[in-house]
Amino acid sequence: MKRVTLLATAVAVSVGGKAAGHGAVTHPRPRNGVDRDLPPWNQPMPAHDSGVSEGLCPAPEANGTVGGFNGQACFWFSNGCAIGCDSCDGVSRGPARYVPNMLRKFPVCPNNTARATLCDPALRTVNTAAECGAHDDWYYYSPWRAPGSAPVFDPCGMAGGTTQLNGKFGAEYVNTTHARVGDLGSAVLPEQPSGVAWAAGAVVEVAWTIEANHGGGYQYRLAPATERLTEAAFQRTPLAFVGRQRLRWGGVNGTTLEFDGRYVSKGTVPVGSTWAQNPIPRNDVQNTGQGFPPHCNTTGALGCQGMWDGGARDGVGPNVAVPNLEIVDWVQIPSGVSPGKYVLGWRWDCEESNQIWQSCSDVVITA
């Protein structure tokens, strides 16, 4: 089988009490990185300082160094989204023990009667000891609890995740000449040819990284670039996962660890489609309840659990890693896909927050 490489990254900051996980595909470079030609993103990245680096989306270069080539791609998402709702409210962050009166369920919309389809503790990522649906199952309405069913603002994300911050939860997107807070990705982000061509039927390597971990899981999918980009368009072609997952530190030639991933295809949208569990556990029991065992026993630069960077930070201690840890998967391009221009969509449904992270990259599918 032909194998080609795709990289993705997730980065996060916590600014003024607004905590959020950030995700963005880095290769093929996404439309969402439209600000990459402007300073400070076209300059060397400062030393990692999660919490003050407003608007920065550091990502691993092929040689393992961390750069700013992805612009603000990690600030395109949908905030305040819950299963059972018709729309996102833009302001609800979801349960948070460290914020007064926020350690509770967040149905988001009135009279929410949704039932979580993902109850297996082995597939959940936070507060896994709580009985499904019980009063202390705080994350019951989070997107990951019924993968793919929660609404989004736009399949390519919204700049900042909300139309206006006003002290509410959402990412600090820095307005530029290319995009402003509240802009919809499918409406304002122009086509940006990546130079990447994949053959129909090929198995391709995909990867993403974490800076601030909000659990949950993710899916990759395709939509024709000639059509209007909607959730329905992407839902027609979800990509199947193939083989084992890997963790990789330091770029394509860095250190790797292979393991059996965990997947769910029951109760998902599209029906029967497969989603992958985020394999990096938070394990900050004091904040998010019981997690799951990490896939490695290292700490520091090679850590694979915690809130920040996939490292050992528990949300309180110092940073212990730079954003160079990638979560690597193999996915297959369907053999029946017609040749032409496509958009690769990536959707990360969080569990520890009512947030969904998205990006869109231009690719070409060949016969």
Helix proportion of residues, in percent?
Answer: under 10%
- The H-and-E topology, N to C, reads as EEEEEEEEEHEEEHEEEEHEEE
Assembly context of the chains: single chain
Q: How much beta, percentage-wise?
A: 25-35%
Point out poorly predicted stretches: 1-20, 48-52, 312-321
Mean pLDDT metric: 85
Globally, the shape reads globular
Give the end-to-end Cα distance, rounded to a whole number of Å: 14 Å
Q: What can you tell me about this protein's structure?
A:
Helix content is 4%, strand content 27%. The N terminus is likely disordered. It is globular and about 50 Å long. It has three helices and 19 strands. The chain starts with a strand and ends with a strand. Strands 8, 9, 10, 12, 15, 16, 18 and 19 form an eight-stranded mixed sheet that branches. The chain has a five-stranded mixed sheet with strand order 1-11-17-13-14, with no helix packed on it. Strands 2-5 form a two-stranded antiparallel ribbon. Strand 18 and strand 19 form a beta hairpin. It is mainly beta.
Summarize the structure.
The chain is mainly beta and 367 residues long.
Helix/strand layout:
Elements lengths: L2 E3 L1 E4 L2 E3 L2 E3 L2 E5 L31 E2 L5 E2 L8 E4 L78 E2 L25 H4 L4 E7 L3 E7 L7 E8 L6 H5 L4 E10 L5 E5 L3 E2 L10 E3 L7 H4 L36 E8 L7 E10 L5 E12 L1
Parallel strand pairs: 1-11, 10-19
Antiparallel strand pairs: 2-5, 3-4, 6-7, 8-9, 8-19, 11-17, 12-16, 12-18, 13-14, 13-17, 15-16, 18-19
